[in-house]
Amino acid sequence: MSFFFQNKKKNYLKLFLIVGLLVCWTSISFNPEKLVNIEHFFKNNFTLFELVNLLRGSITLFFFPVIFIIFVNFLKKEHLNKLNLVYFLFLSLFLIQFIAIFLSPNQNFFSYYLFNSFNVIFILILSKSVLSDKEFTFLTTLSFTLLILMFVYFGTLYLIGFFISSGNFYGSWNLISRNEYFDVPRPTGLARTCLIIFIFSTIYSTFNRNYNNFFIFLSILSVTFIYLLSSRTILFIYILYLLFYIFNYCKNINQIFKVFFRYILIPSILIICLVFSKQVFKERIEDKIFSENGSRFNIFQSLRTFPDLKKKEKIDFSTGRIDDWKKIYIENKKTLYGNGAMGDRYLIKQTASNAIFYTYASSGYLGVFIFIIISLISFYFAALTIIKDRNRYDNPNKLASALVIIFLLLRSLLETSYAIFSIDFIIFSLCFANITYMDTHKK
Asked: Per residue in 65-93, pLDDT tens?
């Protein structure tokens, strides 16, 4: 941390920005409805854990006015450039949602997510201006570390749920989500976290020889969970990334075999051992591991039940998404500016599972136009970075960030992703800052 004291005039601001990012991370998954019913909370649920939970959610609201005042005071003409255009477009998008939420019957407390989003944007714009290259890299390292900790914690919960339940690994969420104080991420959410970790780990292990064994181990562990969680969207993007990695970084057959060994063979062996261990622990092996005729290996049924292509009845591979999108399009009466933050919950009582439809529900056609511009600009900078820096060994952080942006852009087709304050939004915004950062502190 000594590199944070290179410029003594801005030490306090630097530390404030780091603490602010931590505040944003701690507010993830907090339900703002608890702030509305705070009187009920003190009467009925006054426990130490609930108090801490309330503090982690409310502190971001106290942080907002401070960071806003600092941002306005530090805002200069040089900040209004194409490298920060995405952030100012995000500010415009969320400002539309903030106004719209008070012009519709939607719940006003959903504006909480907008304040968190504003905090992230202000922090990153200021950080790009104030922090040196090493200091800014620390922000990414900090976020990456938090992702790893969340992965370890929630991954352990999934493993416990898998062993104590009679269902498959994907369905273990139904058990652990009812028994934890924190909101346990759904399989698609945890799989998202695993793929982000996998991308960073593989790039770090390829370009940065420091802690190489650690990143190899982390990449194997994360890809094992990607297989276990069996999110079809994540599996598809994972395959695309693996092909990209092989094409660009495997120079001979031995390196291709090494990739196959690390990311296909070892995870497969681990999964087989895991499934057999569960059956030994709970039931007779032949009841679950083999099919009814006793000849076909049936291990994938222990992970997730997929639609049966042999059945003649109509199969909905979108898991209801298309019907939800139709409902949003039909139910949204405020087509110009939407219904404010969480507009999908207001219209159809659940997530839109698509960033464009979420934006349409929350900020109308105005928001959709802005969001598409944001996505196109982000894609341009990410693709340009990948083309220029895919073989550079001096800045793997920048390359990994560009690849994660492409991943989140693809994920937004079937999930709300970075359209709302979430892990996706923090990582997306931070990665975009990484690929557009220019060190102004070099002497």
From this structure: 999 999 988 877 666 677 889 999 999 99
The two tokens of residue 167 are 């269902």
Tokens 């928001």 appear where? 367
Q: What angle do CA 31, 35, 38 make, to 5 degrees?
A: 125
Is the Cα torsion angle 265, 269, 274, 279 positive or negative in sign? positive
pTM of the model: 0.90
Which amino acid, residue 339? Answer: N
Q: Pull the structure tokens for residue 313.
A: 């009845």
Report the C-alpha dihedral over residues 166, 171, 173, 176, rounded to 10 degrees: -10
CA distance 115 to 84: 19
Q: Are 345 and 328 in contact (CB under 8 A)?
A: no
Comparing C-alpha atoms, which of 367, 368, 333, 366 is closest to residue 347? 333
Phi, psi torsion values for 290, nearest 5 degrees: -115, 155
332: Cβ–Cβ under 8 A, 6 or more apart, which residues?
Answer: 338, 339, 343, 347, 360, 361, 364
**Contacts with 415 (C-beta within 8 Å, 6 or more apart), sequence order:** 188, 192, 233, 351, 353, 354, 355, 424
Task: Give 290's strand partners.
Answer: 297
Domain boundaries in the chain? 2-71+85-304+322-436
pLDDT digits (tens, 9 = 90+) for 295-346: 444 555 566 665 555 554 555 555 678 889 999 999 999 999 999 999 999 9
Query: Could you give the C-alpha distances from 153 to 15, 38, 162, 247, in angstroms and in order?
Result: 27, 28, 14, 34
CB 381 within 8 A of CB 442: no
Q: What CA–CA distance (Å, rounded) separates 443 from 439?
A: 10
Spell out a b/e string for 349-388, using b for 16 or more CB atoms within 10 Å of the CB, else e: eebbbbbbbbbbbbbbebbbebbeebbebbeebbeebbee
The CA–CA distances, whole Å, from 337 to 247, 349, 409 equal 44, 19, 23
